[in-house]
Write a structure and sequence with these properties.
The protein has 439 residues and is of the alpha+beta class. The chain folds into 3 domains: 3-217, HUPs (Rossmann fold, 3-Layer(aba) Sandwich); 232-295, no CATH class; 306-427, Phenylalanyl-trna Synthetase, Chain B, domain 3 (Phenylalanyl-tRNA Synthetase, Chain B, domain 3, 3-Layer(bba) Sandwich). It has helices at 26-37, 54-70, 88-107, 118-131, 157-166, 183-197, 202-231, 248-257, 262-268, 373-379, 384-388; strands at 18-21, 42-48, 74-78, 111-113, 144-145, 148-149, 233-234, 238-242, 276-280, 283-288, 291-295, 306-308, 312-316, 319-327, 339-343, 351-355, 361-362, 371-372, 391-395, 398-402, 406-407, 419-427. It starts with 17 loop residues before the first strand and ends in a 12-residue tail after the last strand.
Length: 439
């Protein structure tokens, strides 16, 4: 199939500008040229990592000359290799996508395109399966990841090189790809040639099989989304799943999204633990009372709390907060634990929303005396993560609400109440983008 067919109907491109990542290699040169030939409005972005001295500068110069010839604006970022630490590929990836993100904020692109193709997906698939992966790992690289599109995943490296030659386009070869320092290079230089010896069109067949798998997995992802909407419970800081025997594959998918590899996920779900805590790069997982509970945070960002001066909208840590006052006529329905009702005439503004502190106590609804907050949470069998992140609403020195759990007897509505305060806390759920392997 001609490369032009892979770049048809890019979402938003009819009214916006596309950003094309341009390294100077055959893949990105072919993508830039075919997008340009197809009439899209384009910018290009190149990162000079400075890791290969004059060769890196030569890549940059070639990209400048190509974009000048095609009348495409080029944005260049020069990295300082002296600041590199840790994994070189991860360092380069962070710089690259950070640069793309900055440009996107400035220009508001319709989409950001990278030139990954079937060979890249094949290499990533082998690395994913070697490390253990879920169903999506067999795709190697996702065709879409948020605002990033990879339209060439169904063609091969040979296709992009042939396109460049047919259109008289030069391209640069990265000398670091000839070494064996990285897993991807070892696959590219050792395994891929043997795979292609099995069949002259082996990589093209992989690309076609991958495309069919991508379509099949769309049904799986829809079912997984329904599972999450049905089974996951949220607080402001945690997600929890009640462990069941069925749909273990979805539990594995959820754990993978939380940063746990397949071996660790399988161990967590093995049934040999009644309780436990595990850590990943994304947060902490707790097994508590038959539930898996994940927390992406370990401490309050603002331990001093937030003053609520009166009616209005507020944001505190992971919550949207709505405060309103109204005439009290009838007792409201008490069903949502994140809704607080109280006699506004007794409360003292400004109110303070803050984390629980050692020694905090309150008079729970229906009780005559005070009780420690820590004891209330323990009696309710609240897990350790939610205890750490619990909030209280204070009126002066009194705690009026242990948010989500119990209200104070002192501030309850009664027949003598004239004005009612309502506070609604809504968790702000944010799904982090998952990264993928890149060249």
């Amino acid at each position: 199939m001609a490369l032009e067919n892979y770049v048809k109907n890019i979402p938003g491109a009819d009214t916006g500008i596309l950003l094309c990542a341009l390294s100077g290699g055959a893949d990105s040169v072919a993508l830039l040229h075919v997008l340009h030939s197809s009439g899209y409005r384009l910018h290009a972005a190149h990162v000079n990592y400075g890791l290969r001295g004059s060769e890196s500068d030569g890549d940059e110069q070639y990209c400048r000359e190509l974009c000048t010839e095609l009348h495409i604006p080029l944005h260049v970022h020069k990295a300082d290799p002296g600041l590199k630490s840790g994994n070189t590929q991860q360092w380069a990836r962070d710089i690259r996508y950070g640069f793309f993100g900055e440009l996107d904020l400035q220009f508001g692109y319709a989409a950001i395109l990278t030139a990954h193709q079937a060979n890249d997906a094949f290499e990533s698939m082998l690395m994913n399966t070697a490390d253990g992966c879920g169903p999506s790992g067999f795709l190697g690289i996702a065709a879409r990841n948020g605002r990033y599109l990879r339209p060439l995943l169904h063609c091969t490296r040979q296709d992009t090189e042939d396109y460049c030659r047919q259109h008289g386009l030069g391209f640069r070869n990265d000398s670091s790809n000839a070494g064996n320092a990285y897993k991807r290079n070892r696959i590219r230089l050792g395994i891929t040639p043997q795979y292609q010896e099995l069949n002259a069109r082996a990589m093209a067949h992989f690309a076609a099989s991958r495309q069919r798998l991508e379509r099949a997995l769309s049904f799986y992802h829809n079912a997984y989304s329904e599972f999450c909407a049905r089974e996951i419970s949220y607080t402001g800081f945690t997600e929890s799943l009640l462990l069941k025997n069925e749909l273990q594959l979805f539990y594995m998918e959820w754990l993978a999204a939380k940063g746990f590899n397949s071996l660790m996920a399988a161990d967590i779900l093995s049934g040999k633990y009644r309780k436990g805590e595990w850590h990943s790069r994304l947060g902490r997982l707790l097994l508590h009372e038959g539930q898996l509970i994940f927390s992406s945070g370990g401490a309050h960002n603002n331990p001093a709390g937030l003053l609520l001066n009166g009616p209005g909208s507020y944001v505190y840590e992971n919550y949207h907060i709505e405060v309103s006052l109204s005439a009290y006529t009838t007792m409201p329905a008490f069903g949502n634990p994140m809704l607080f009702y109280a006699d506004a005439g007794i409360l003292r503004f400004p109110l303070l929303l803050r984390p629980v502190q050692t020694g905090d106590s309150m008079q729970p609804l229906g009780m005559k005396g005070h009780k420690k907050i820590s004891d209330i949470l323990t009696d309710k069998k609240i897990n350790r993560f939610d205890k750490e992140m619990a909030l209280v609403l204070c009126s002066g020195k009194d705690i009026a609400w242990l948010c989500g759990y119990t209200v104070s007897e002192k501030f309850r509505l009664s027949s003598g109440s004239q004005q009612m305060l309502e506070i609604r806390l809504t968790p702000r759920h944010q799904e982090p983008e998952t990264g993928t392997a890149s060249r």
